[in-house]
Design a protein that fits this description.
With 432 residues, the protein is an alpha/beta fold. It has helices at residues 2-7, 15-35, 49-64, 88-100, 104-107, 125-132, 148-156, 203-207, 215-227, 241-246, 264-269, 276-289, 308-321, 347-370; strands spanning 40-45, 68-69, 78-83, 112-117, 138-140, 162-164, 185-187, 191-192, 211-212, 232-234, 254-256, 294-301, 325-330, 376-384, 391-396, 401-405, 414-422, 426-431. Bound molecules: 5'-deoxyadenosine.
């Protein structure tokens, strides 16, 4: 009977998915009658904001199907893992996590275990999960997350294993249900995928070529979010932005400008399309034109062929720009990328050089943070402090965190906070 209904599914999207959301709700109810409890779900997200955003969409779909969100991964009826593969330790972390679930409880035939995201787009990963983690019964990739309702329907209708991984993206599908972790802040995609092909990076291979969304769709989404009470929307950077930022008090004072390396020679081998001098020019222009704006960055140490002299150049940029924060990574060899076949650096040397970079970054960002002590800032209140529930945790316009005493009712509001004490990477303050 169910198969017959599935054949009636519309061909066009998103209509097709709304059909499966309805069908899925019926199948979920039948399952609930059989199991005598409401069906719950849990989504675990690894990796970046793109994955976080995808997870919000998938949670929206599961909510629409009538599944109930539950905090406990071990007891949920449907568990979904959204994976990351940017560095090899991301893969290892995920396999470790899956391994820890490989028990009788998880092999329960009524449980649905779904795995999706960047790792699934990588050669060999699906096969490895099929052979080593047999309790996984739905697998899909990055290009078809909007199809979650359809895949869950197939599973609920009796298929043992559902696998749907596409090599390439098809159309961008808009208007799929989504939820937000916080009612007052949201991420908005302006594009998907990447065309830069940095030689170390796996992203273009697992997320596909760059596709921009229509400007009008982006605007419409931002307007809708604002009308729903959202106060913070996260987008991306363009050159023109510096001028626009100068004249606007609605744009947060934070720019993430990934450096990767300060050596022009290494930047060229990375296919980054800018030199040390060009990077410095842009970063120092931001410092001059937007002095209250925090600049953060990403740095990779140990790219093939990198020498201590190249690392000296990176440290030189760190000292000149004085980053407010930096994510520092040890280069990780990713299969299929051009850098994987270049001559790799001795891991012992990489460790040493990495520590030098880390020290330089920490010194600068600590000193930069201390400069704000005593100032009063607008702070968007995010949440109750995780360690001490008498405190609130919020972020300043430059994205730095501040903890201060206050009432729960202020969550989602913008308040004035004096920065009393700098603790390195965060502040302790008081409301004024
Ligand atoms: N090894 C180490 N770091 C990497 N990144 C991307 N690919 C790799 C890799 N193979 C880092 C870059 C990027 C951030 C998201 O991850 O610094 O900006």
């Amino acid at each position: 009977m169910n198969d017959l209904k599935f054949e009636m599914a519309p061909e066009t999207e998103p209509e097709r998915q709304y059909f499966f959301i309805e069908q899925g709700a019926v199948l979920r109810k039948q399952k609930e009658e059989e199991l005598k409890h409401p069906l719950t779900y849990h989504v675990t997200t690894f990796g970046c904001q793109m994955n976080a955003k995808d997870s919000e969409k998938m949670k929206g779909i599961l909510n629409e199907m009538g599944f109930i969100n539950c905090d406990d991964e071990k007891s949920a009826d449907l568990v979904l893992f959204n994976t990351c593969t940017i560095r090899d330790n991301a893969n290892q972390k995920f396999y470790g996590h899956l391994g820890s679930l490989n028990d009788k409880n998880h092999r329960n035939k009524d449980r649905i275990t779904a795995v999706c995201g960047c790792m699934m787009q990588e050669k060999g990963c699906v096969e490895k999960i099929r052979s080593s983690y047999k309790f996984v019964n739905i697998i899909f990739g990055t290009h078809n997350i909007y199809k979650l309702a359809e895949l869950v329907c197939l599973k609920l209708a009796g298929e043992d294993f559902v696998c749907d991984v596409w090599d390439k993206p098809k159309d961008i599908v808009e208007d799929i249900p989504s939820i937000r972790k916080y009612p007052f802040k949201a991420g908005v995609n302006i594009m998907y995928g990447c065309n830069n092909y940095c030689t170390y990076c796996i992203v273009p291979y697992v997320r596909g070529a760059e596709r921009s969304r229509e400007a009008k769709e982006i605007l419409m989404e931002c307007e809708k979010l604002a009308s729903e009470g959202v106060k913070e929307v996260m987008l991306d950077l363009s050159d023109e932005l510096i001028t626009v930022m100068k004249g606007s008090n609605k744009i947060c004072r934070h720019i993430h400008l990934p450096l990767q390396s300060g050596s022009s020679r290494i930047l060229k081998a990375m296919n980054r399309r800018y030199s040390k001098e060009q990077y410095l020019e842009l970063a120092l222009k931001i410092r001059k034109e937007l002095p209250d704006t925090a600049i953060t960055t990403d740095i990779i140490v140990g790219f093939p062929g990198e020498t201590p002299e190249d690392v000296d150049e990176t440290i030189d940029v760190i000292k000149k720009v004085r980053f407010d924060g930096a994510f520092t990574f040890i280069y990780s060899k990713r299969a299929g990328t051009p850098a994987a076949s270049m001559e790799q650096v001795d891991p012992e040397l990489v460790k040493k050089e990495f520590n030098r970079v880390l020290e330089a970054v920490n010194k600068e960002s600590k000193e930069m943070a201390a400069l704000n002590t005593g100032k009063t800032e607008d702070v968007l209140v995010d949440d109750i402090n995780e360690q001490d529930e008498r405190l609130l945790t919020g972020r300043m316009s430059n994205n730095m965190t501040v903890h201060f005493p206050g009432e729960r009712s202020l969550i989602g509001k913008i308040v004035n906070v004096r920065l009393d004490e700098c603790k390195g990477f965060y502040y302790v303050g008081s409301m004024v």
